[in-house]
Amino acid sequence: MALLITDECINCDVCEPECPNDAITMGEAIYEIDPARCTECVGHHDEPQCKVVCPVECIELNPEWKEDEGQLMAKYHRIVAPA
């Protein structure tokens, strides 16, 4: 699954630079995660780095983007493939 930042986000700016897929950007009110780019850090790290650094624990699984480990790895390969 891709991840989702909830309304509890305090805009502390620590998650955005940690995302190896550039999936996190500032939205209108809080940071947002692009589910098409989020691999939960599969291919890069053992656990999602945004969740590791989030001080308010406002990042959770996005129920609208159900993906298994294989699908996340395939997405990772598409993202890092040379253009």
From TrEMBL:
<dbReference type="InterPro" id="IPR017900">
    <property type="entry name" value="4Fe4S_Fe_S_CS"/>
</dbReference>
<keyword id="KW-0408">Iron</keyword>
<keyword id="KW-0249">Electron transport</keyword>
<keyword id="KW-0813">Transport</keyword>
<keyword id="KW-0004">4Fe-4S</keyword>
<dbReference type="GO" id="GO:0005737">
    <property type="term" value="C:cytoplasm"/>
</dbReference>
<keyword id="KW-0411">Iron-sulfur</keyword>
<dbReference type="GO" id="GO:0051539">
    <property type="term" value="F:4 iron, 4 sulfur cluster binding"/>
</dbReference>
<dbReference type="InterPro" id="IPR017896">
    <property type="entry name" value="4Fe4S_Fe-S-bd"/>
</dbReference>
<protein>
    <submittedName>
        <fullName>Ferredoxin</fullName>
    </submittedName>
</protein>
<dbReference type="InterPro" id="IPR050157">
    <property type="entry name" value="PSI_iron-sulfur_center"/>
</dbReference>
<feature type="domain" description="4Fe-4S ferredoxin-type">
    <location>
        <begin position="1"/>
        <end position="29"/>
    </location>
</feature>
<dbReference type="GO" id="GO:0046872">
    <property type="term" value="F:metal ion binding"/>
</dbReference>
<keyword id="KW-0479">Metal-binding</keyword>
<dbReference type="InterPro" id="IPR047927">
    <property type="entry name" value="YfhL-like"/>
</dbReference>
<dbReference type="Pfam" id="PF00037">
    <property type="entry name" value="Fer4"/>
</dbReference>
<feature type="domain" description="4Fe-4S ferredoxin-type">
    <location>
        <begin position="31"/>
        <end position="64"/>
    </location>
</feature>
